[in-house]
Structure formats: structure tokens, C-alpha cells
Amino acid sequence: QVQLAESGGGLVQAGGSLRLSCSASGRTFSSNAMGWFRQAPGKEREFVAGINWRGERTNYTDSVKGRFTIGRDHAKNTVYLQMNSLKPEDTAVYYCAASLTYSGPYYVARALSDYHYWGQGTPVTVSS
What we know:
It contains no helices and eleven strands. It is mostly beta strands. 34% of the residues are buried. The protein has strands spanning 3-7, 10-13, 18-25, 34-39, 46-51, 58-60, 68-73, 78-83, 92-98, 117-118, 122-127. The protein is 0% helix and 46% strand. Strands 2, 4, 5, 6, 9, 10 and 11 form a seven-stranded mixed sheet that branches. The radius of gyration is 14 Å and the shape is globular.
């Protein structure tokens, strides 16, 4: 059974940092684009960051550029999201996702429909 498990969420003050991890089991995703999404209460799930399968190309939503960094460790079948300078508006449940879509070696998936496996989410709360 394929599973994605997020960890690292929690409560942090504005300006603080958190590092989210996503561990995959049941299959390897070393050849797949991976991403992070988030969903705040009453809002739709939105793209946060994505990374291509080789880990050399990344993409971010504008609101997190310069503050968040996505990375991956193929040996550990894990994807990370380093979040710095957190703001109250970053409060949401954060989801890890894996894409089965392939559009070249530099492909970074952004759309919800491009992702096929999802974790259960980890909550992040940023207090002001």
C-alpha cells in the first residue's frame, strides 16, 4: 500500500520556522515530481511548492517565495519543506503529494489534478 506521511507541523510564533517532512512507503517516488499543498479553514487546497524528480528544479507560489524551500532526499524517499519567516496567513493543514505525470526531466507539477498520491496532512498554526 502506497502511503505518504507528513510530519513536523505544529504551533509557532510569527517569524519562526518549521521543517516539514514527507516520507513515502510502498513504492519509491525518486522518478516523480513531488509537491506541497496547503488548505486553510474555509478555503480551497492550494499549491505551495513543487520539485522535479531530480531535485534540481523548484517552483513556489508567490506568497512563499524567499521564505520556503522544498528539497528531496532520494536515498530516504523523502521530501522536505523548510518554512522560515512564518506568518499567521501560513496557518493551514499542509499536504505532501506525488505526481505520476511526466512531462520531461524538469517538470514541476503545480495543479491539483497533476498529483495522484496524497498524505493525510500535518497542521501548521502560526500565532501573531
